[in-house]
């Protein structure tokens, strides 16, 4: 096992250059042949391979096909693409490590920095940790969307899914709306909305139905936004889909009506006798 100093030396920019060949293959646009344009190198750092300079052979379409922007259509190494995004320095395994630490284990940026330095000899700035965390979320969203057909098939195999919908405020910065498959316990999608209103919730529900199919039931709170959006969605689908009220919200609302006078009386007594809470 390498010690901390050895790991740091191994993961530093040590000047190791690896030639990475790009496989011959057809042009993505015209399916014609490609030819070598140039070789270029850039620094790459991964947890599994360490740090190195990847000198990659770039291939372009022999017929000169271009993207709509006018940029030449190129082919890059599939072997390198499995480890790092085009033009990026830090590999996917570092991105996943940062993402899991940040969003699954709820670690702060400085904790993640210290962990990477201690265990892998990597010295990343707080800003770079934030960038990797955002990149992780972006790629996770893309992955989730690409797996929508498989998720839809699993939900259909269950006989459908009860769609739980709810939103929560975030300290004056809008609201987070979440669509949740109740039986599976899967978050199907989530959106940041400016406010909890039916005209903002309904388009999100349409996306859920388009990706995962119509639910067998909808569970919502007692608020007017969720109620109106759920009713509008069921009307558009023209199906017999029950719209259910959350028992927790219902009991909380009833309990507030029943207990408010006594609670107010107790609170007034506390204030009257100046009892510290």
Proportion of β residues? 15-25%
CATH C-level name of the largest domain: Alpha Beta
| Total count of helical runs of at least 4 residues | 9
* Tally of domains: 3
The pLDDT mean sits at 86
Our Rg estimate from Cα atoms comes to 27 Å
Instruction: Work out the helicity level.
Output: 40-55%
Look at the structure and name the CATH superfamily of the largest domain: Ribonuclease H-like superfamily/Ribonuclease H
Which CATH architecture of the largest domain would you pick?
2-Layer Sandwich
Derived from helix and strand composition plus strand pairing, the structural class reads alpha/beta
CA-CA gap between termini: 56 Å
Task: Walk me through the structure.
The chain has 277 residues and is an alpha/beta fold. The protein folds into three domains: 1-63 and 72-79, no CATH class; 90-146, no CATH class; 150-245, Nucleotidyltransferase, domain 5, CATH 3.30.420. Helix content is 44%, strand content 22%. The protein is built from nine helices and nine strands. The chain has helices at 4-11, 78-81, 92-104, 109-120, 126-146, 148-157, 198-212, 224-237, 247-272, and strands at 17-20, 34-46, 50-61, 74-75, 162-169, 175-181, 186-193, 217-220, 243-245. A five-stranded mixed sheet has the order 7-6-5-8-9. α3 packs across α5 (126-146). Residues 1-13 have low confidence and may be disordered.
């Amino acid at each position: 096992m390498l010690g901390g100093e050895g790991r740091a030396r191994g993961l530093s920019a040590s000047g190791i250059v690896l030639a990475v060949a790009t496989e011959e293959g057809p042009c993505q646009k015209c399916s014609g042949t490609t030819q070598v344009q140039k070789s270029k190198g850039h620094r790459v750092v991964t947890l599994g391979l360490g740090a190195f300079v990847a000198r990659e052979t770039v291939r372009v379409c022999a017929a000169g096909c271009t993207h709509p922007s006018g940029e030449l259509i190129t082919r890059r190494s599939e072997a390198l693409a499995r480890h790092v995004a085009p033009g990026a320095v830090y590999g996917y395994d570092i991105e996943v490590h940062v993402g899991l630490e940040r969003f699954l284990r709820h670690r702060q940026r400085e904790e993640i920095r210290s962990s990477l330095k201690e265990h892998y000899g990597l010295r990343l700035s707080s800003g770079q940790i934030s960038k990797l965390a955002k990149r992780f979320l972006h790629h996770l969203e893309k992955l989730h969307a690409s797996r929508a057909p498989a998720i839809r098939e699993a939900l259909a195999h269950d006989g459908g899914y009860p769609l739980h919908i709810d939103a929560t405020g975030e300290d004056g910065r809008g609201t987070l709306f979440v669509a949740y498959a109740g039986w599976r316990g899967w978050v199907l999608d989530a959106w940041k909305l400016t406010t909890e209103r039916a005209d903002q919730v309904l388009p999100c529900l349409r996306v859920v139905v388009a990706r995962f199919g119509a639910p067998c039931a909808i569970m919502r709170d007692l608020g007017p936004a969720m109620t109106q959006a759920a009713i509008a969605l069921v009307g558009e689908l023209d199906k017999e889909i029950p719209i259910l009220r959350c028992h927790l919200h219902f009991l909380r609302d009833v309990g507030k009506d029943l207990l408010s006078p006594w609670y107010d009386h107790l609170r007034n007594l506390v204030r009257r006798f100046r009892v510290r809470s």
